[in-house]
Amino acid sequence: MSLKRLEDVTYFRLNNEINRPVDGQIMLHKDKEALAAFFKENVEPNTKTFSSITEKINYLIEENYLEKEFIALYDPAFIEELASFIHAQDFQFKSFMAAYKFYNQYALKTNDGDYYLESMEDRVLFNALYFANGNEAIAKDIADEIIHQRYQPATPSFLNAGRARRGELVSCFLIQVTDDMNSIGRSVNSALQLSRIGGGVGISLSNLREAGAPIKGYEGAASGVVPVMKLFEDSFSYSNQLGQRQGAGVVYLNVFHPDIIAFLSTKKENADEKVRVKTLSLGVVIPDKFYELARQNEDMYLFSPYSIEREYGLPFAYIDITEKYDELVANPKINKTKIKARDLETEISKLQQESGYPYVINIDTANRTNPIDGKIVMSNLCSEILQVQDPSLINDAQEYLHLGTDVSCNLGSTNIVNMMTSPDFGKSIRTMTRALTFVTDSSHISAVPSIEHGNSLAHTFGLGAMGLHSYLAQQFIDYGSAEAVEFTSVYFMLMNYWTLVESNHIARERGITFHNFEKSDYANGSYFYKYLTDQYLPKLDRVKELFKDIFIPSEQDWADLRDKVQKDGLYHQNRLAVAPNGSISYINDVSASIHPITQRIEERQEKKIGKIYYPAAGLSTKTIPFYKSAYDMDMRKVIDVYAAATEHVDQGLSLTLFLRSDIPQGIYEWKTESKQTTRDLSILRNYAFNKGIKSIYYIRTFTDDGDEVGANQCESCVI
């Protein structure tokens, strides 16, 4: 038998029986039967066996499956010892979906695809050895965190660590384009290179001159942003990893850019094929001023990037529109056009109903809470990466006159369910920080110098979380309740504290801080001011009970940390970000990210296989009432939860809003009819803005025919 010739397997049929209730009861035990059958019929007979881990590693190196360099950093006896430790933890998959996803997507297979070469324990071993870079103590700590599923490296890191033939460890990238042909050409090349590597690419087009702007004195010569969007879409379609996956990218544009209506129109179903973008994602960058003008039902002016750069000597994205709006309106040297703010707001809502796009970046909110010197101008493919960037200047020979800084995303996630039973919460987070530090230190994207430069200066990563709804339900807490919101705040406060502790420790250990640390709010101490009160300590009895065995830093602890940071600095410019989760949340047997589940029994359409059913982790008669679908939930509750986490996250959180096309009665007090309207989306966006939300990812709409508009199909940037 081999994986290509599986016959008479029963696990798919057993799994499908979950969806056929008997006497009104969900047949959850059928999933356990499917899991057992999967190992008996698929995994065990098709796994290549070895007498020892040393024999296996030697084979994998000889056959060019595994890199030898990281193995050579360790004594073989230690590797045997670590492998024994991992196996002694008695890891067990908890669902058929978890095991199926791991062996189908992550386990190393023979070149002919006939046999498995790795178990979960093996993949954990290679991750730990790789990320520890020769340090035996750190390797054991990392192995301990991953095998107990307290820590989950991002998909590209977890999948590729240690492999001889692999992609990059990073998840996605951000680049910005400046208003000249050299930058456009270089950015298209960068998109090709980055898509080839495997990550999703975010691109800012806000600096480009609008359609009709002059070029070298010729009036009305510029074509605007839409043709450039088409160039990027074609680039991603071409650079598709030998056809294995569609290249993925998102383009961002400021809402005060004169091409904003044309930009949004490219995603409409009835758009002309010459301008329509099918696979490119859209995002809008929204300054505070837009919300003010829309709220007051006033006109808004769109400002020429060409005029602004000539007048101020800065690219459009680096002008504070909110601060300078009236000045720009009054300046006759700034070309401008006028539209109704609410008309644009309605256009955004219409498109979100139709396609789920555009993503929304509340750029002033992001910059207001940004502790780093510089300006955030855009985000990434999943809207959670918010880092300062510096534009590059390129001459006609395609040489960098000024090498700016762009961004690579080095991601990982905590598993909330398992973290809350960690024997040492702080040590767990510190270990994860070490693992992610290796990823950022070892990432060298030389094909795109601005990415390489930015990463080498900033040493950033984004540690997030998954499984919030799973944890709350298993604790019999309603998602969005006061207890849920406070729990979220305390959990992310702890993540913030311990990543700061370890980043400071690494800076002291190496004598290195991130670039421009001395200009940051960490250096002057102002970042820590809000923590020098008790406002983030647990106050509700239920939340106090949940954290009763976990260290909570006091005001004095924060003050001590402030003093250490001011003295020795931080190694990492950015540390926290909450990405969406793809298949990896199934392997962890928890709900994705920190948003609610959409189905108690999730139905997944797998290629060539058919439907697979995944019951929510911990689903039982007792927990069913607490596993309410996001589509039946007031989205303001979701926003409240994300706002609580946002308070402690130095970057962003990938927030998806879920609505039905026919909204159930009683969810929203302003609704007089069930049909979802553009007004509903406008109200929710404004609510999110007022709660301090930095970004909104997809708007997902569940339609009458069971389809999902705006369902996330991108696996490039997810954890």
UniProtKB/TrEMBL annotation:
One of its Pfam families is RNR_N
Where do the TM regions start and end?
A: none
**One cellular component term from this protein's GO annotations in UniProt:** ribonucleoside-diphosphate reductase complex
Q: Known EC number(s)?
A: 1.17.4.1
Q: Which InterPro entries match?
A: NrdE_NrdA_C, RNR_1b_NrdE, RNR_lg_C, RNR_lsu_N, RNR_N, RNR_R1-su_N, Rrm1
Supply the enzyme class, top level. Answer: oxidoreductase
Molecular function terms, GO-annotated? ATP binding; ribonucleoside-diphosphate reductase activity, thioredoxin disulfide as acceptor
Catalytic activity, reaction form:
a 2'-deoxyribonucleoside 5'-diphosphate + [thioredoxin]-disulfide + H2O = a ribonucleoside 5'-diphosphate + [thioredoxin]-dithiol
Keywords, comma-separated and alphabetical: Allosteric enzyme, ATP-binding, Deoxyribonucleotide synthesis, Disulfide bond, Nucleotide-binding, Oxidoreductase
Query: Is Disulfide bond given among the entry's keywords?
Result: yes
Ribonucleotide reductase large subunit domain location is 558-580
Q: Which PANTHER family match?
A: RIBONUCLEOSIDE-DIPHOSPHATE REDUCTASE 2 SUBUNIT ALPHA, RIBONUCLEOSIDE-DIPHOSPHATE REDUCTASE LARGE CHAIN
Q: What does this protein do?
A: Provides the precursors necessary for DNA synthesis. Catalyzes the biosynthesis of deoxyribonucleotides from the corresponding ribonucleotides.
Name of the molecule in the record: Ribonucleoside-diphosphate reductase
